[in-house]
Write the structure tokens for this entry.
Amino acid sequence: MANAIAILQKLSRNFQILGLTIASQSQTQVVVSNGSNNITVSYVNAVFSPSVIGGVDPSVSPFLGIGVGNPGEICIQSATGTTLPTILDGAVAAQVFASCASMANDILFQDNTGLPTSAGAGVQLARIRGQSDLLNMGQ
């Protein structure tokens, strides 16, 4: 339902505004430079039934889903992250987390066993509930 590409592009712009360096970016992930422990931010689509809710077509309404109406999750991983402290290992990681937390989506921390493509992929280390009031949205 949500346009994951638009959400990741918005996050990438936010990271750049904060002065962070984008190591690489694709339609499925944004990688932020963090020394030898680069941080990967991706988007995990929610799995729900029926697959189309309210007849919303993401190609017609691409920004629907950036916020509380979208049940998808923002996933944070790092190159060496097998535990939460190894993912959140310094100021860059903290800035990435804070920027992701400004979205209304839940944040999922997963270990570095692979890029999540669906709910339940990889080992979930923590889930941070999203902000339903859209505080800081669009700033």
About this structure: The beta strands are 22-25, 29-32, 39-44, 73-78, 106-110, 124-128. The CA atoms of residues 11 and 125 lie 22 Å apart.
